[in-house]
Amino acid sequence: MLCRVVGLACFFLSVLGACSKEPTKAGLAGDGSAAAETKALRIAVIPKGTTHEFWKAVHAGAVKASRELKVAVTYKGPLKEDDLKQQIDLVQNFTAQKVDGIVLAPLNDKALRGPVKGAKRSGIPVVVIDSALQGEDHQSFVATDNRKAGALAGERMAKLLGEKGGIIVLRYQEGSASTANREKGFIDAIGKHEGVEILSSNRYGGATTESAFKAAESLLAAQGGPDKVAGVFCPNESTTFGMLLALRKTGAAGKIKFVGFDASQKLIDGLKQKHIDALVVQDPFNMGYLGVKTMVQHLRGQSVKKLIDTGAKLVDPTNMDSPAMKQLLAPDLKRWLGE
Fold it and tell me: Which residues of the chain have pLDDT under 70?
């Protein structure tokens, strides 16, 4: 009798064991990755900084993607956009933590190449967003076509000036590939208009509004203010706002044609007051969203494009109130970030 009971027990245990293995087989049959089916992927998103409105929109887009795709996203970056050491440390720390993937907006196109190569050696893929990185160690590049966006600004500037006048370019900072490409796109476009002269293009505003304001004030004074300068171009949010403050302080706001880059409430107010003539606006929300989505697609065994253009639009006082532009200028961050 005892033998029959033991035999029956073994039979039922073997049936249960076979049933418990079936989900594993189904998981493997899905997309070739059992890990992708059985655990939440952990994605680290590392921006250039965390204070500018641009990066808050990137964060919101990343959160949207994480909820839709049911993955865990950790968003952490340097406080200021000149803390290269902290960004390098973050890449290395997330690599040591063995996250499943890293989405990175590199502060420097050369300095982050080593940490990204190290992540790859550890089996952790990287998707680069916003600003290019040298080398081939990342899976995809999700960003604005920055040269094209800079050229868009250059053509608008030439039109604003009626094809003649002297202009100044306040650059961002050395090593930033995204802004360097915008500056090149702008300068190349201006070069096609013989009546427009670039008076200065070798000054850098730096990573903060304060440093950009000081550089802009000095540059305007050195070039003779509105008597000599007909237009100014700035390639990102901090340099645009710093220049706006300098133009207002010197009484030149509205007198000098001004094309900037990116959007924040203060820059939108500048458009409304006609202290800024036009802004080239990216889609940082979509950049954050597609950065995470592309990483998840790669981790789940799907093919991804090497280059994904998130687009850019030119906004001015004539179109800023259209629904499409309002969405770009002021995405609903509270819905995703709870701020």
Answer: 1-38, 339
In a domain, 183, yes or no: yes
On whether both 209 and 243 belong to a single domain, the answer is: yes
Residue 170 shares a structural domain with residue 255: yes
Domain CATH for 83: 3.40.50.2300
DSSP 225: G
Residues 49 and 106 in one domain: yes
- Return phi, psi of residue 190, to 5°: -65, -35
Q: Rounded CA gap, 229 and 206, in Å?
A: 22
Residue showing tokens 């360097």: 180
Enter the pTM of the model. Answer: 0.84
Residues 250, 302 within the same domain: no
Nearest alpha carbon to residue 151 among 287, 289, 24, 259: 259
Q: What is the pLDDT of residue 39?
A: 76
CB burial class (10 A; 0-12, 13-18, 19+) of residue 9? exposed
Q: Measured in Å, how far apart are the chain's first and last C-alpha atoms?
A: 70
Q: How many whole angstroms separate alpha carbon 122 and alpha carbon 118?
A: 6
Shared domain check, 243 and 156: yes
Half-sphere exposure of 263 (CA within 13 A, CB side): 29
Domain around 123:
35-144+284-310
The confidence score (pLDDT) of residue 26 equals: 28
Model pLDDT, residue 339: 65
Cα–Cα distance measured from residue 183 to residue 29, given in angstroms and rounded to the nearest whole number: 49
Is residue 74 located within the same domain as residue 122? yes
